[in-house]
Amino acid sequence: MERVMGGGVLQLVLLSAGILLLYRILVRLRPGADLQDAVVVITGASSGLGKECARVFHTAGARLVLCGRDAARLQQVVQELTASSTSSGPQTYTPSTVTFDLSDTDTVDGAAEEILKCYGQVDVLINNAGISYRGNILDTHLSVQRDVMETNYFGTIALTQALLPSMVHRRSGHIVVISSVQGKIAIPYRSAYAASKHATQAYFDCLRAEIEHCGIPVTVISPGYIRTSLSVNAVTGDGSKYGVLDKTTAAGRDPRDVAQAVLKAVHRKSKDVVLAGPQPNLAIYLRTMWPALFFKLMSSRARKERKPKDE
Ligand SMILES: NC(=O)C1=CN([C@@H]2O[C@H](COP(=O)(O)OP(=O)(O)OC[C@H]3O[C@@H](n4cnc5c(N)ncnc54)[C@H](OP(=O)(O)O)[C@@H]3O)[C@@H](O)[C@H]2O)C=CC1
Ligand SMILES: CCCCCCCCCCCCCCCC(=O)OCC(=O)COP(=O)(O)O
C-alpha cells in the first residue's frame, strides 16, 4: 500500500516538474522574455513609433536609454512609462535619456559616450529617428536633400559606428534600424526620403555581413504607413515644414502594433522584415522581377499627383 502511494507521489512530483519546465520554456519563447534587464537604446523616442517601442521594451523589463532632440518631451515619455509600471510582470526600470540632434554628426560621438555611461553597455540599438519629405526634385534645394540624408542616414550610421566597437569588444549586441518600404522602392515626390532609406538599407546589409562573425545580428525593418506625425513633421523642397497629416498616414497601422512587431523581430533576430500589406509587397516584387511595369506604375502615380504648377 505504502509503495503504491509512494509511486503516486513520485508521479505527481515528476508531472509538476514537467509542467514547471514547460512553463519556463514557454516563458522564454515569449517575445520580450529575453529582454529582462537588457540595455535598449531607442532614437526618436519622443513620439510615434519610437515612443511605442519605448513602451513595449519598458514593459518587457529592458533598461532603456531614450534619445531625441527635446529633453522635455523625452522626460514626458519617462513619466508616462514609470506611471504605467505595475507591480506584476517583469521588473521595470526608470528609463535614462540622452538629448542630441542626429543631423549634427559632430556631436554624435559625445552622445554615444553619454549613452554608454548610462549602463556601461548597449545590448540593443534601435535606430528609429527619422524625418520625411514632400516635394518635386525640380523645386527642391540641394540643402534639403542633404539635410534629410544627414538625419536619416549619416546621423544613424554615425551613432551605430560610435556604439559598435563596444559591442564588438563584448562580442554581444544587436543593431536594429527602422527603414521603410521606401528603402526598397522609390515613389514619386519622396526623393530625399526614399534615397535616405535606400542608403540605410544598403549600409545595414553590408554591416550585417561584416559583423555576423562577432555574433551581432543586424535587423532592418521596413514598415508601410504608420499612424504617427511623420507626414506632419516632413520637410518640403524649400525647407519649410509640410505640416499636414496625410490620409495615407492617418490610415496607417497602429504604432503599438508595429512596436510589437519590432519586439518580435528583435526576439527572433530577424535579418530583414517588411511590415506592410499586399500592395507594397507586390510593388517591391515588381521592382525586381518586372521593373518596366513598376516604372510605368510610378509614372502614372506621378502624373496623378502632379500639381498644375509642375506642368
Ligand atoms: N509613419 C510612417 O508612416 C512610417 C515611418 N517610418 C519610419 O519610422 C521612424 C519613426 O517615425 P515616426 O514615429 O513615424 O515619426 P515621428 O515624426 O512621430 O517621429 C520621428 C522621431 O524622430 C526624431 N527625430 C527627427 N529628427 C531628428 C534629429 N535630427 N535628431 C534626433 N531625433 C530626430 C523625432 O524626435 P524629436 O523631434 O523630439 O527630436 C521623433 O521622435 C522613422 O525612421 C520613419 O522613417 C517608416 C515607415 C512608415
Ligand atoms: C498590375 C498590378 C498592379 C499592382 C499595383 C502595385 C503597385 C502599388 C504601388 C504601391 C506603392 C506603395 C507605397 C508605400 C509607401 C510606404 O508605405 O511608405 C512608408 C513610409 O515611409 C511613409 O512615409 P511618407 O512620408 O511617404 O508618408
Main attributes?
311 residues, alpha/beta, Rossmann fold, seven-stranded parallel sheet, two-stranded parallel ribbon, 10 helices, 52% helix, 12% strand, binds NADPH dihydro-nicotinamide-adenine-dinucleotide phosphate, binds the ligand CCCCCCCCCCCCCCCC(=O)OCC(=O)COP(=O)(O)O
Short description:
By secondary structure, this protein is α/β, with parallel strands linked by helices.
Order of helices and strands: HEHEHEHEEHEHEEHHEHH
Which architecture would the CATH scheme give at its second level? 3-Layer(aba) Sandwich
Strand segment count: 9
The CATH topology, please?
Rossmann fold
Q: Between the first and last Cα atoms, what is the distance in angstroms?
A: 97 Å
Question: For the residues shown, what is the average pLDDT?
Answer: 94
Strand order of the largest sheet: 3-2-1-4-6-7-9
The biggest beta sheet is recorded as:
7 strands, parallel
What proportion of the residues form beta strands (DSSP E)?
Answer: 5-15%
What radius of gyration results from the CA coordinates?
A: 23 Å
For the record, the CATH class is Alpha Beta
Structural class by secondary-structure content: alpha/beta
The total count of helices amounts to 10
The proportion of residues forming helix, as a percent range, comes to 40-55%
| CATH 4th-level superfamily | NAD(P)-binding Rossmann-like Domain
Function: Putative oxidoreductase.
InterPro entries: KR_dom, NAD(P)-bd_dom_sf, Sc_DH/Rdtase_CS, SDR_fam
GO molecular function: oxidoreductase activity, acting on the CH-OH group of donors, NAD or NADP as acceptor
GO biological process, one term: lipid metabolic process
